[in-house]
Amino acid sequence: MRYTTIGSGAGARRVSKLALGVMRFGTDTDVSTSYAILDRFVGAGGTFVDTSNNYAYWANGTQGGESETTLGQWRRDRGIGDELVISTKVGARPTDVVERVENGWENQRDRRWEGLAPENVREQADRSRERLGVERLDLYYAHVPDMNGVPLEEYAAGFAALVKDGVIGQFGLSNHWSWQVERARAVNPEAARPSVLQYHHTYLRPRTDIPDRRLSVDGEIGVADASLLAYLRATPGLTLVAYTPLLSGAYTNPSKPLDPAYDHPGTTARLAVLDEVAAETGATRNQVVLAWMLGDALPVIPLVGASSVAQLDESLAAVDLELSEEQRARLDAAGR
């Protein structure tokens, strides 16, 4: 395993360069399988696990919490301490009971959401700490911009108060526009500036002008677009945690087509080079994608999911895959 440091000062943590997402643990992924995947990840040197207070409400018609509960119980059963860095999120939990939702958000525009009012952020931090069995949340994200009209400056200050009080170690932002990241960093004191950003990022480049189904008519807010990557490059101390780096299996599983956002000529060119490099290295497409991300000059931590130990093993093998400078240059240039 390879390691890096996220954050600075008292909240800084050394974490594995590959993070494990446990979104479906305790719902679609049963407890036994969840434990096996977590055991394998930690056994391979993994130290960074990601969840959220709303995971996975859509699976069982709940308000979420199953993922945190499963992760917390596994920690207790295995005697895991603060050597494991856990990130969780707040702001996108429904406050009404929901029915099972298949494949996304299409029927949820009118749901009632918890939002990011400082009193809710603090209350949910306490509930997450209880489910996870930890005294302090290592990294606490605003999952999405507030959906109830709370100004960004107000909820950023709420996270800053949690850092000051020792409730959380670091404040992170997920699925925000670049200008919102900059504003949050400008209004908060240095010790409580967002230090980790979580967005969708992968080798293929999606269109980002398609309106977000929930959050914005201006485009896809949750994608690490050119503006966000440029901001990351220009801002020392920031780390990008990249969710869905393997496109939920679409790189390798013919039964899982690419999202329409990838339906443009650049995708064909990049897939062709991806296949070339996979053949040259004897690796899978997924492993080349992860190796490309892990070797990036930008501070990027791929966040991988797994529904089986075999899936996780494929991702873990990418940590040791070294791409040549020539291979990386070809991958970077494809589709330009």
TrEMBL record:
Protein's name according to its UniProt entry: Oxidoreductase
Domain NADP-dependent oxidoreductase: 17-334
Organism expressing this protein natively: Nocardioides luteus
A GO-annotated cellular component: cytosol
Pfam families assigned: Aldo_ket_red (PF00248)
Domain of life from the UniProt record: Bacteria
InterPro entries: AKR_Detox_Biosynth, NAD(P)_OxRdtase_dom_sf, NADP_OxRdtase_dom
